[in-house]
Amino acid sequence: KGIHLIKHAIYSALERGCQVVLLGSAPAEEVQLEFEEMRERLGQQHWNNARLHLVYDEALSHLIYAGADMLLVPSMFEPCGLSQLIAMSYGTVPVVRRTGGLADT
């Protein structure tokens, strides 16, 4: 899902004074551990502007879609993709890679 792009985007956004919310879990254990370490660092450095909720929660996802200004979808491969469509239904602007179904929507 473009993990390296997510990490870069989080730090770049925080440097610009943005707030960041990440919801979900990584498919590979080593990547999940990287995000857990990142959550700890961000909790110390950017405790007021960054939240990483590293398990998926459907109800919380809808609150995030509704409250976000934009949604980052940096997938390297995405045959269809629903998250960008859900985001648009809430008025949230999806920022996506030009790949697969993301490019079509």
TrEMBL record:
It catalyses: [(1->4)-alpha-D-glucosyl](n) + ADP-alpha-D-glucose = [(1->4)-alpha-D-glucosyl](n+1) + ADP + H(+). Transmembrane segments: none annotated. It is an enzyme of class 2 (transferase). Its EC number is 2.4.1.21. GO terms for molecular function: alpha-1,4-glucan glucosyltransferase (ADP-glucose donor) activity. PANTHER family: GLYCOGEN SYNTHASE 2-RELATED, PTHR46083. This is starch synthase. It comes from Pyramimonas obovata.
